[in-house]
Design brief:
Layout: E1 2-5, E2 10-14, H1 18-21, E3 30-32, E4 63-73, E5 81-86, E6 93-97, E7 100-105, E8 112-115, E9 124-134, E10 150-155, E11 158-172, E12 176-187, E13 196-202, E14 208-215, E15 224-233, E16 238-239, E17 242-243, E18 246-254, E19 257-266, E20 271-274, E21 278-281, E22 284-285, E23 288-293, H2 306-318, E24 323-326, H3 333-342, E25 345-349, H4 367-382, E26 388-395, H5 403-419, E27 424-429, H6 431-434, H7 439-443, H8 452-455, H9 459-467, H10 470-481, E28 485-489, H11 493-501, E29 507-512, H12 517-526, E30 530-535, H13 584-592, E31 600-604, E32 623-624, E33 636-642, E34 647-652, E35 655-661, E36 669-675, E37 680-687, E38 690-698, E39 705-710, E40 714-715, E41 720-728, E42 741-747, E43 750-756, E44 770-772, E45 777-784, E46 788-796, E47 802-808
Parallel strand pairs: 23-24, 23-30, 24-25, 25-26, 26-27, 27-28, 28-29, 29-30, 40-47
Antiparallel strand pairs: 1-10, 2-3, 2-4, 4-9, 5-8, 5-10, 6-7, 6-9, 11-12, 12-15, 13-14, 13-18, 16-17, 18-19, 20-21, 21-22, 31-32, 31-33, 33-36, 34-35, 34-37, 37-38, 39-41, 41-45, 42-44, 42-46, 43-45, 46-47
Pfam family, one: Glyco_hydro_2_C
Family: Belongs to the glycosyl hydrolase 2 family.
GO molecular function: hydrolase activity, hydrolyzing O-glycosyl compounds
């Protein structure tokens, strides 16, 4: 079918009932271009100010929104099929065409289509309206509205069905690959039709490498599947370090000419899995260096743009990750495309809930009636993407500890396998949540029963202790048995245990604490049946406010709460902040992975020196790579040095502060106590007495300057450019303690799509033209609306204006 973007020309507004609007009219409509997040522009509220959602949604209020669009349908489309495709609408979408109900989708992450043809006026303008709502239905910031791409699909009566070309590579080696292509052909005419089907495979350079043709007879109203086996000689295999891609074009031809055509992209690769070699891709064992990520794009809210997804994947890969677990919902098509191109492996996850609620009005209300259709949608979206290696059927589902839950797990796993038998099925199981109803009884057991009583003070130790108990072993055995890979959340204590108890069990750390990556990765390397680790999280995100924030004991011993109060906005955890800037934890992880041989130096904020740390296991130390602390001269300060070397030596203004051991046996880190003096701080790493690397941080000096750094100078119309606004000195050293408001003006064929910082607690908005920097940084995102030069001018107090010019072609 012909696919055209349907993103332009929409209007939206908050929705009230038609009865409430009688006599006074409704809220004004506002023109928008999709993708669009209706929630990110709302006014946040403290809990006593009217927000029912609270910290889970970053204190954004829920609501109901409606979108409308007028579009012309030519008369010649009367004999064609016309569909509207929504890659996702959050949530409880209702679609109306010319006032008539055309379709709906409760789940906010599923691709769905509505058949518009039954309601259209041909040769005339037509109206489409979409309603979406969000209200206490998630544990994180979801956004709302039509936040992913929309498409208008048109095709003849005999056509390739939408999403109807599926490619698998069941038999692959370096000499040749079998490429099996299953094409669904639909026939809405009143007669049997027998079109000719031609399939052509081309490599990345456009060279034709395989072809096949056949006839396919299609009965009226009864789709037919044409299955072809093609052979590609000396294939370029898709792997994370060389993600080679091919295209397959399927063309339907009848006596009167071409009827329809469809082109898909795919990769040729093989997957193998066993407890002795773990996961093998093209015969080579691969350990998953994984990041869990949510779907929001920081200052853009939930709006999903191809460039935003590509940028995230590239930054994550540059930081040392080779796998993403999309938590806890299906990944966008745009991110899947980026993972294919850049070589990032994917674990795509279906659901966060099944039949038990985690929020008052979440998907559990729809799951029993809709789960099969949503599984269908996820697999259909993923099936041609070589980056996808596993489907996760759930996350921390409480039912997994019950027989009924195990039955549900078996049902979901078999459904996935019936749709795609080429990939593996997992489920991210939290053993403690699986036995939560028995936790009180477990705590009363003697301390030699998994050490529960002595470990309750630390959440990480508690989860490990409970999850490694005999109770969890018994209660989750069946739920794990229905899977190809046992996803284990926060329970690395099970790795060695299960190696003995369940020798055929393949394990992945589907969600783990960032503070434990050194020990976790040691276990991943030690046990062949443990195929990887996925940290929570790779990228900071909106909502779950403050779960990873730095916390310290108060003078009266009061323990701070799990969630942070308003105006906290972000979770405050993640190797990478919401602007795409790498935090110290990211460099530490890269060293643990063995991907960085240089040391890394980070400094804890002096104002907290001497305080007792009480942060959660998701919280990294309150440190940044800075030696600019004006006002703290002579104050004590703690310096962290990360290194895989035997030992590290710290120097302050040329004076040695001593050597300390580092490396694996010391958790890849050393800590030094000193006092702050402006100047230069550097660390030197030694192995066997020989220097292996160094890292330096310097104090910023002199007047503060405002710099604008653009990720790309040339973009296409509709594409995005990211502009970092940074406060520095003349030498380019960032001023981390000189934050101030920065104002933005954009001229030319472009708009300011989002503007903000990584400040985890702020009342500032992302849709404003002024935002205060955080640790000396802010980020502006531009969208090109046409061809020409887009000029961004940034101003800040006591700084010369900074300018960035982006050319849109």
């Amino acid at each position: 079918m012909i696919r055209e973007s349907f993103n332009g020309g929409w209007e939206f507004r908050p929705k009230v009932s038609s009865f409430a609007e009688l006599g006074r009219g409704g809220a004004p409509w506002r023109l928008v271009t999709l993708p669009h997040d209706a929630m990110i522009g709302q006014q946040r509220f403290a809990p006593d100010g009217g927000s029912l959602e609270g910290g889970a949604s970053a204190y954004f209020p829920g609501g109901t929104w409606e979108y409308r669009k007028t579009f012309f349908v030519p008369e010649e489309h009367r004999c064609r099929r016309v569909l509207v495709e929504f890659e996702a609408v959050y949530r409880d979408a209702m679609v109306y065409v010319n006032g008539d109900y055309a379709g709906q989708r409760p789940y906010g992450y599923s691709l769905f289509r509505v058949d518009a043809g039954r309601f259209l006026r041909f040769g005339a303008d037509n109206d489409i309206r979409v309603e979406a709502r969000a209200h206490r239905d998630s544990r994180w910031y979801t956004g709302a509205g039509i936040y992913r791409d929309t498409w208008l699909l048109t095709g003849p009566l005999v056509r390739v069905g939408p999403g109807g070309v599926r490619v698998t590579t069941p038999d692959t080696d370096t000499e040749r690959a079998v490429v099996e292509i299953a094409t669904t052909v639909e026939n809405d005419s009143i007669a049997i039709r027998t079109p000719r089907l031609l399939t052509e495979i081309r490599d990345a350079a456009g060279n034709l490498v395989a072809t096949d043709a056949c006839q396919v007879s299609v009965l009226p109203g009864e789709p037919a599947i044409a299955r072809q086996r093609l052979y590609v000689r000396t294939p370029a295999l898709w792997r994370p370090d060389s993600p080679a891609l091919y295209s397959a074009r399927v063309t339907l031809t009848e006596d009167d000419g071409e009827a329809d055509a469809e082109t898909v992209t795919f990769g040729i690769r093989s997957l193998r899995l066993d407890p002795d070699h773990g996961l093998r891709i093209n015969g080579e064992t691969v350990k998953l260096r994984g990041a869990c990520v949510h779907h929001d794009n920081g200052v853009l809210g939930a709006a999903t743009f191809a460039r935003a997804e590509e940028r995230r994947v590239q930054i994550l890969k540059d930081a040392g990750f080779n796998a993403i677990r999309m938590a806890h919902h299906p990944m966008s098509t745009a991110m899947l495309d980026a993972c294919d191109r850049l070589g990032m492996l994917v674990m795509d996850e279906a659901f966060d809930v099944w039949t038990s609620a985690k929020s008052d009005f979440d998907y559990h209300l729809n799951f029993p009636q809709w789960w099969e259709r949503d599984i269908d949608a996820m697999v259909a979206k993923d099936v041609n993407h070589p980056s996808v290696i596993a489907y996760s059927i759930g996350n921390e589902i409480p039912e997994t500890g019950t027989p009924a839950g195990a039955a549900w797990g078996r049902r979901l796993a078999e459904k996935v396998r019936s749709l795609d038998g080429t990939r593996y099925v997992t489920n991210a199981v939290n053993g403690m949540l699986a036995v939560l109803d028995d936790l009180a009884a477990l705590r009363s057991q003697p301390s030699d029963e998994a050490g529960i009583n002595t470990r309750m003070a630390d959440p990480g130790d508690m989860m490990n202790a409970v999850s490694s108990s005999d109770l969890v072993t018994r209660r989750t055995a069946e739920s794990f048995s229905v899977l190809d890979i046992a996803g284990i959340n926060y329970a690395e204590a099970r790795y060695a245990l299960d190696r003995d108890l369940f020798p055929n069990r393949i394990i992945v750390g589907s969600e783990t604490f960032p503070t434990r990556i050194d020990g976790n990765w040691r276990l991943v390397k030690q046990y062949p049946n443990v195929i990887g680790d996925f940290t929570w999280t790779g990228w900071d995100y909106l909502g779950e406010a403050g779960i990873g924030r730095p916390q310290y004991a108060t003078a009266d011993g009061t323990q701070p709460g799990f969630a942070a109060p308003y105006p906290w906005l972000l979770a405050g955890c993640g190797d990478i902040d919401i602007t795409g800037h790498r935090r110290p934890a990211s460099y530490y992880r890269q060293i643990v992975f063995g991907l960085r041989d240089q040391p890394y130096l980070a400094v804890r904020r002096p104002e907290h020196h001497g305080k007792t740390w009480t942060g959660t296991p998701w919280a990294w130390s309150d440190s940044i790579a800075s030696w600019t602390w004006p006002g703290s001269e002579g104050a004590p300060v703690t310096v962290e040095v990360y290194s895989d070397a035997d030992e590290v030596e710290l120097f302050l203004n040329g004076r040695s502060l001593g050597r300390k051991p580092a490396g694996d046996s010391h958790r890849f880190r050393a800590e030094f106590e000193t006092v702050y003096q402006p100047g230069e701080l550097f660390a030197v790493a030694y192995t066997g007495g020989t220097e292996t690397g160094r890292h330096t941080v310097r104090s910023a000096t002199g007047p503060v300057r405002l710099r604008a750094e653009t990720d790309r100078q040339v973009i296409s119309a509709g594409d995005l450019a990211y502009v970092a606004l940074i406060l520095t000195d003349a030498a380019g050293t960032r001023y981390t303690i000189a934050d101030r408001p920065v104002g933005i003006e954009v001229t030319g064929p472009g708009v300011l799509l989002g503007f903000g910082s990584a400040n985890p607690s702020t009342e500032e908005r992302f849709d404003a033209t002024e935002h205060r920097t955080y640790d000396g940084r802010a980020l502006a995102v531009l969208r090109a609306t046409g061809a020409g030069k887009i000029r961004l001018t940034a101003t800040a107090a006591e700084c010369e204006p900074a300018e960035s010019i982006v050319t849109a072609e």
